[in-house]
Amino acid sequence: MTLRITARFALSCPRHPRYDPECGGQGAIKAGCDICSQMCRIWRSSLALQQEYHDLAEKIVQARRAEKGS
Ligand SMILES: [Zn+2]
User: For residue 66, how far is its CA from the centre of ligand 1 (angstroms)?
Assistant: First the structure.
C-alpha cells in the first residue's frame, strides 16, 4: 500500500480577505472572527501533517538503510 495525500485549496474570509494565517497567526485575527480562526486551525493542522509526513519519511529511509545493512 502506498499512502498518498494531496490537498490544495484557497480560502479567504469574506470580512477579512487579507488575513493570512501563515503571516499573522492567531494574533492577527480581528474581533475573534470564527472564519479566520478556523483558517488558522487548518493552517496549523497542515503544518502538523507536513511534519508528521517528514518524520515518517525519515523513519522509512532509516528502516531501508537498516535493511540494506543487515
Ligand atoms: Zn475573518
Answer: 49
